[in-house]
Amino acid sequence: MTGKLDLDPAVVAQARELARLAGQPVTDLARTHTTVSVERAVLRLAGLDGADSDGMPWVNRLTDAVRESVGLEHGVALPAWDAMRAGGYPDLRTLAVDAASGLSSSACPRGTKPRRPGMTPPVRYKEASP
Prior knowledge:
By secondary structure, this protein is an all-alpha fold. It contains five helices and no strands.
């Protein structure tokens, strides 16, 4: 027996394996599905905050624009960061303002693959020009 709790390492290993097996279906589901809320959280974690003059959060505006343009099957980060790079946007807020006004469109960069195993590109998929 080792460690501070004097637990049998074989029992600990077995418990960890059982926990991994029990959690695997949830992990598989999370890797192949996303939600609007998750994608908005991605933008918040990236620093996008605030709201437009109507009180609509910028994360909502940008997520909606990406969803309408290419779908959320790849998530919001890939098309948003590609639009920032391709459009010369200095930050996500500037991109969100233009996207809400229809001045910017999102696309998935050429040659990209879905970020989650088992996901396929959306029907409205369009590739960015080189």
